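Dear Dr. H.,

I hope your travels went smoothly. While you were away I took the liberty of generating a structure for the chain from your last submission, since the lab meeting agenda had it listed for discussion. I wanted you to have the full record in hand beforehand rather than looking at slides cold. The sequence, exactly as received, is reproduced here:
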Amino acid sequence: MQTYNEDQAISMRDQEIAKNIASLLNTNAINIDAKIASKLSYGRQKALANMATPSSRLALSQHGVLRLLGDYWHQHRLLITFMMCGLGIVALLLIQNSSNQDDTEQGDAFLLASDLPPEIYSNEGFGTWLSENTQQ
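The corresponding predicted structure, in token form, is as follows:
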């Protein structure tokens, strides 16, 4: 209960300080030079215009594509994780492709080194002969 009262007292003090600052600015605003007043007005209009336009993460600016991915660049852990996953998938595909080539090469070498000519393997009777001989 005491912390609530302390927070309320701090909030009241902050509001009082803000009112004092606003009143000082208002009293001194009368004495501002016209050139400074126009610069302040221009700055205020520009700030309001920037607030009104929604910021899109996909908006390309004068910096090009780096601006498109700029928000993700600072999250380097996530970026490195995706890069490592991509490299792992590429490595897996390369290893799998090389092992399939070895199997194909061994099968071709077996066919060429066997006593039977390769035309026998495409013959319809060879399938029945092979099934009869493997069942015995």
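Two observations you may find useful: The helical segments are 2-29, 34-52, 65-68, 70-73, 76-113, 118-121, 124-135. The chain has two domains: 1-49, 72-136.

With kind regards,
E. W.
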